Amino acid sequence: MGDALEDMLVTPVEMAAIDKDAADSGIDSFSLMRSAGLAVSAAALRLFPAGLRFVVLCGPGNNGGDGYVAAEALAESGAQVALYILGDADKLRGDAARACKGCRLAGLPVEAYEPQAGDIVVDALFGAGLARDLPGVAQTIIKRVSASRIPVLAVDLPSGIDGRSGEVRGASFTATHTVTFMAAKPGHVLMPGRQSCGTLEVFDIGIPTRLVAARASDLRINGPADWRHYSRGLDAGTHKYKRGHLAVLSGGPTSTGAARLSAAAGLVAGAGLVTLGSPPEALAANASHLTAIMLKEVGSAADLAEWLRDKRLNTFVLGPGFGVGKKARDFALMLCDRALVLDADGMSSFQQGREELFDKIAGNGGQVVMTPHEGEFARLFPEIAADAALSKIEKAQAAARLSHAVIIYKGPDTVVAAPSGRAVVNVNAPPWLATAGSGDVLAGIIGAHLAQGFPAFEAAAAAVWRHGEAGICAGRALTAERLVENIPPLA
């Protein structure tokens, strides 16, 4: 794939419009289907050289058309191929009908398929456009294949996965490998769809990049290309204040560790200097654990107001171990004119009265990043969380619009969304990142990026990616402390 399409995500509706635009431009649509089917057959032969039989399951639409082309190509290569059909092949129309007629293999009804040792299933039943539950016969075959544990090569997307949301529609294949075309779809990267796809291969079937880009929204897989231009190296004349001053606000004496983790992560991630703002009763606990990180007494709103007179203090992290309540609300509202990471208790404190926070963010330019996990998202945005019609991407986008903040909707498929609708989905985080203190480290990395002058969206996207890379480097036995030590360089 070309660089322009490599990290792009295209929704099924957008892909349908792209296909139509390609046909309207004079590109033969059947040639595109033939390219897709040949890509599938090539992948099957390359990935499964020891397979005794390729079993191609063809559905009632264009995904089935790709399957017919693949079946014919596999048979021409000398492989043993069995063809099974869902529905009445005589009712196929357009390119799918042409592909079916061009396949010389005799097909049997899909319900007749009984898995055998050595089979490789080529799943061409339903593609990314699926938006309803699978018919019962398809669900039965999926369960039969799953029980047999034979490998599955999915065409476009494993049948049963909704290409827009990644949700399972009744049942789905779990593929060893998935071949899709032109660009990945949200269902490839959102859970649980992502874990059903196996390895993903995106194949260029010949639609011009300009046609894809013209229809695609501002939705991408998170990666350095989206924020690399903000991570340029340091110039020879820099000093610590040019690299940004990050402040992290600590909770009381029995809950100081989370803030210190954020502060340590911020320093490693590139902030020029980091200060921990501590209430007086926690000063001794914090002082006993700090070296390069500075310490300042900040016990009240008046203390914070005095500190804010220093305009070099440009970024704050509020929430890790801070405590839920009025103090957190008061502090957050005072900080909306600076760059602010509102995490954990900082968000939960606005379960009631969120409108005041959202209005304050909007009135101060919106350089605020909020980092809810599933439970925190449901508390802060209950009406959005409850809307089953929305994908995780769409929920994050709706929350960003409502709050005027950049939203990091955390999870194994973390989504970063801006109020403008721009969004990225992160795919590099290992499952062992789900450990105590991991979110506190992420908050500190975001704060470091904001302190260095990143816009809020890029600061958040880069932080989520670096956090994932740190998890990979730290390995399965990571703790939050080890995670800090493994934060990779930004540039």
UniProtKB/TrEMBL annotation:
Keywords of this entry: ATP-binding, Isomerase, Kinase, Lyase, Metal-binding, Multifunctional enzyme, NAD, NADP, Nucleotide-binding, Potassium, Transferase
List of residues binding K(+): 63, 123, 159
Taxonomy, superkingdom: Bacteria
Residues reported to bind (6S)-NADPHX: 62-66, 127-133, 156, 258, 321, 373, 440
Gene Ontology terms for molecular function: ADP-dependent NAD(P)H-hydrate dehydratase activity; ATP binding; kinase activity; metal ion binding; NAD(P)HX epimerase activity
Entry EC no(s): 4.2.1.136, 5.1.99.6
Keyword Manganese: no
Pfam name, any one: YjeF_N
A Gene Ontology biological process term: metabolite repair
Sequence similarity: In the C-terminal section; belongs to the NnrD/CARKD family. Belongs to the NnrE/AIBP family.
Job of this protein: Catalyzes the dehydration of the S-form of NAD(P)HX at the expense of ADP, which is converted to AMP. Together with NAD(P)HX epimerase, which catalyzes the epimerization of the S- and R-forms, the enzyme allows the repair of both epimers of NAD(P)HX, a damaged form of NAD(P)H that is a result of enzymatic or heat-dependent hydration.
Record protein name field: Bifunctional NAD(P)H-hydrate repair enzyme
Organism of derivation: Sinorhizobium americanum
